[in-house]
C-alpha cells in the first residue's frame, strides 16, 4: 500500500528526515514513536504534502502511484487521510456541507455515484453516534468554537465518512484526555479491516493501550532505528529513549 524508500526532507535548510524507510501493507496498523523533535510530525506533513514540507530525495509509492507527484487533493482522492489536515476552522461553512462535498468529491473520483442529501445525512448521523458528538455539530461551522476534544471527535467522524485506505493520525502533541483518546482508538478500531491501513504517530505509549498495533517503529534523528511488535512500545514505556544514545538525546 505504502512503500517509503530512503526519504530525506529538510526544513529551512536543516535536514530533518535522513533516509527513512517504511513499508505498510493493506490492513496493517503501524505505530510510530520516538523522542521529541525526531521528525515524526514532519514525516506526516511530507506525506500529506503540507506547504513547506517537501521531500529532498527518496520515494513514496502509494497504491502504485508516486505520492510526491500528486497534489494534496489528489492524495486525498487516492485514499490518503491525514488527521491534522482538518482541524482548521471554517466559519460559515456547515460541518455537514463540508463533509458531504469532500465525500462526494472522492466518490466521484472513484467512479461511485454521489450520495444524496438524505443518504449522506443517514451516514453522518451514524458517524456522530459512533464518536459521541451531538447531531447539532453537523449544523455548526467547521470546527468553529469546537473544544479540543470536539475537534478530535469531528476529525475521527470525517475519517469514518471518507472511508480512506490509509489513515495517518498524529497524536503526539495534542494533549488528549482519556475520553478523547478512547474516541480516537474506537474510531481506528471500528475502521480496521483487512484492507484499511493506519499510521498512528504517538509520543507516549498510552494510546497503544487502546489500539493494538501490528508493528511499532522508533523514529529517532530522522530515521527508523528500531522496529518490532506491540511489545516494543511497552519496552519504551519502561526504558524511555535513553538507549538510543547520544544522538537521539541531542534531538530531544
Ligand atoms: P516530532 O514530531 O518527532 O516531535 P517534528 O517533526 O515536529 O518532530 O520536528 C522535527 C524537527 O524539525 C525539530 O527539530 C523541529 O524543530 C524542526 N521543525 C519542524 N517544523 C519546523 C518548521 N516549520 N520550521 C523549522 N523547524 C521545524
Ligand atoms: Mg514535536
Ligand atoms: Mg510531532
From TrEMBL:
InterPro entries: ABC_transporter-like_ATP-bd (IPR003439), FeS-cluster_ATPase_SufC (IPR010230), P-loop_NTPase (IPR027417)
Keywords: ATP-binding, Nucleotide-binding
Domain ABC transporter: 2-246
Any one GO molecular function term: ATP hydrolysis activity
Keyword ATP-binding on entry: yes
Superkingdom assignment: Bacteria
PROSITE patterns named in the record: ABC_TRANSPORTER_2 (PS50893)
Pfam families, A to Z: ABC_tran (PF00005)
Nucleotide-binding recorded as keyword: yes
Family affiliation: Belongs to the ABC transporter superfamily. Ycf16 family.
UniProt-recorded name of the protein: Fe-S cluster assembly ATPase SufC
Source species of the chain: Aliidiomarina soli
